[in-house]
Design a protein that fits this description.
Structural class: alpha+beta
Largest sheet: 5 strands, antiparallel
Number of helices: 2
Oligomer: single chain
CATH class: Mainly Beta
Distance between the termini: 25 Å
Strand order of the largest sheet: 3-2-1-4-5
Helix content: 25-40%
Strand content: 25-35%
Order of helices and strands: EEEEEHH
Number of domains: 1
CATH topology: SH3 type barrels
Length: about 90
């Protein structure tokens, strides 16, 4: 099962406009934000992430509700976090 998970943008990568650093449940990773080129996220904003791509911007309340739900999903969420922890986009 693959999930879309919320992440907070912490940094936009200089010279790489399609990449941003995000934090997801304590894990920091680089993701691709090219799908949001019409309205790119800024540091402090939240995005919904699937397979290393930001699919949409979401507000902080939506992110909190999604994280609460995902924590209740159990193993699927743990597997998604493990996959995120091992991923590398550079």
């Amino acid at each position: 099962m693959c999930l879309g998970i919320p992440g907070e943008v912490t940094e936009l990568l200089a010279g790489q406009p399609d990449l941003a650093k995000v934090e997801v449940s304590g894990i920091r990773r680089v993701i691709n934000v090219a799908l949001l080129a019409d309205d790119p996220p800024a540091p402090g904003e939240w995005v919904l992430i699937h397979v290393g791509f930001a699919l949409s911007k979401i507000d902080e309340n939506e992110a909190a509700e999604a994280l609460k739900f995902l924590a209740g999903v159990g193993q699927a969420y743990a597997d998604e976090l493990a996959g995120l922890a091992q991923s590398r986009i550079e």
